């Protein structure tokens, strides 16, 4: 009886540890991919900002 409880406890701890490691790896992967996505979005925003400034300057030259 006691052996069975110890084995059950050991199995539950192993499955808990495995689930913990899987979740931590998943969170790390999500953070890394969100960092990459944020950098890509930042790059697009900078390109659009520069494009808008250049178009504004061209329009101001044409208007003036």
Could you characterize what this model shows?
The chain has 64 residues and is mainly alpha-helical. 97% of the residues lie in helices and 0% in strands. It is built from one helix and no strands. The longest helix is centred in the middle third of the chain and has 62 residues, at 2-63. The N and C termini lie far apart (93 Å).
Average pLDDT confidence is 87
The beta-strand count equals 0
Shape: rod-shaped
Task: Describe the sheet with the most strands.
Answer: none
User: Topology as H/E string?
Assistant: H
Give Rg in angstroms. Answer: 28 Å
Distance, first to last CA: 93 Å
Main structural class = mainly alpha
Secondary structure: helix percent: over 70%
Keywords: Membrane, Transmembrane, Transmembrane helix
Transmembrane segments: 39-63
Short description:
This protein is mainly alpha-helical and 64 residues long.
